[in-house]
Amino acid sequence: MDKYDLLIIGAGTSGAYLARRVAQMGYSVLVIESLPKDKIGTKYDIFHIEQREFERLGIPRPVEGDEAWAFEFEKNYNSDPLCLYAKLQTNHVVGLHLHEYTVLMNELAEKAGARILYEAKFKSLLFDKAGRVSGIKYTYKGEEIEAAARITADCSGIEAAARTALPDDYGIENRPLTAEDMFYVILRYVKIKNEADYLDGSTFWASYKSWIAPCADPHGAIIGLGACHSFEYAEKVYEEMIKTVPLPEHEVIRTERGRTPFMRNFHSLVGDNFIVSGDAGCLTKSINGEGVTSSIYELKIAAAAIDRAFKTGDTSRNSLWRINTEYNRTQGAEFAMLRALLIGVINAATPDEFQYAFSSGMISDEILNAVNGSPMPAKAILNTGRAFISGIAKKNISKSTLKAAARALKNAAEIFIHYRNYPETPDGFEKWCEKADKIYDRIGKIK
Ligand SMILES: Cc1cc2nc3c(=O)[nH]c(=O)nc-3n(C[C@H](O)[C@H](O)[C@H](O)COP(=O)(O)OP(=O)(O)OC[C@H]3O[C@@H](n4cnc5c(N)ncnc54)[C@H](O)[C@@H]3O)c2cc1C
Questions:
Q1: Which atom of ligand 1 is nearest to the CA of 259?
Q2: In angstroms, what is the span from residue 379 Cα to ligand 1's centroid?
Q3: Domain 2-61+98-176+264-315 is in which class?
């Protein structure tokens, strides 16, 4: 049986990034990928990465002329349903072709020394006598093959082939995602009919979880919408949205559909000789379901922990636990807080209330910048508070929405603090989960 230091299931952006990082450290890495190379990253075409992320995460930055590059833009509007009071934020975003970018990431991993086996499908986990993961069985060219590894990483995307094959008592949640745990995203690639409507940036309507953004064609756009439950439900929301939102006149060229996890990340991302990441670990952003760079943030932590584990010869859950602690106390805490706020506000506020929030200045540039990580000036908080109180006095905001907003703020603060106190070691983990689940029960799910 072949033996590797690290075995990765899935050669999407997550698996390819981890493979490159760990191979660069001189360890042997095998990635198995069920698709042929010319089909990887073809689940949809265009995805976005914020300019600042390339350097922060050390990932390749394609430029105009490269196959993976599609377009870039800087203007991002957050808009009221009627598009009367859109707030502009400047954030440099690069649009990339997912297939070409995934191929690029794969080739970089191979250059670093990782071996990628395409058309090789994960079948089952292998366990040692003590019940710890010791490798995998996979199928390749009609044959069943076993491979052993010091650590196995599940980067197989939303279906989480290996995570869902773990025994119940392995310390990682092993249930498959349900329709309530994911976003059904529909993308319409359109041609805009009137020159005056050509886009200079993207616009996001939080009230409908929908957006219009540039595409590779400067006279075109991508109209996107994400909703829980099903694609049919997402289409219904779209029908509602176009009754209010004045979209530019357009012709639909093609439509793409895809699913992305839209739930908290799993409470633990590590077990003995095992880690889970990417969509398989639900590491997507709680604001919009994007998951490429948020997963890579966690994988950067994981690569350092794997290096330490190999050097000390200890690949146990205890040794890999630092991935959980470092991740959950940082990005995990931020995502949990934003999730609580988003769910609370979106579930409660009506389109009219959203309209008021924009027109009254309750939602300001500063508040939106703070959602993206900038510090929030005291004056902005004061202005938001004033507009809020005035909205209640004038009945622009209902009492039930007021109560829901107060609850959302309380839940957001509580879950943030709880994640910041994520246990240093597996001791106390069960208690931490119990409390987290109680808070999440109060937060609820997005409608
Ligand atoms: C419509 C849409 C638009 C999006 N836009 C953005 C965006 O703009 N920015 C952003 O950051 N994110 C975006 N996302 C989310 C992003 O696409 C995912 O978070 C990201 O692709 C996850 O990468 P991954 O490597 O974890 O999983 P995947 O890309 O799903 O890769 C998993 C790989 O594992 C392979 N695999 C699966 N099962 C097996 C098996 N049994 N054996 C072997 N191999 C297997 C699969 O073939 C696949 O290649 C979007 C999602 C959707 C649906």
A1: 53
A2: 41
A3: alpha beta
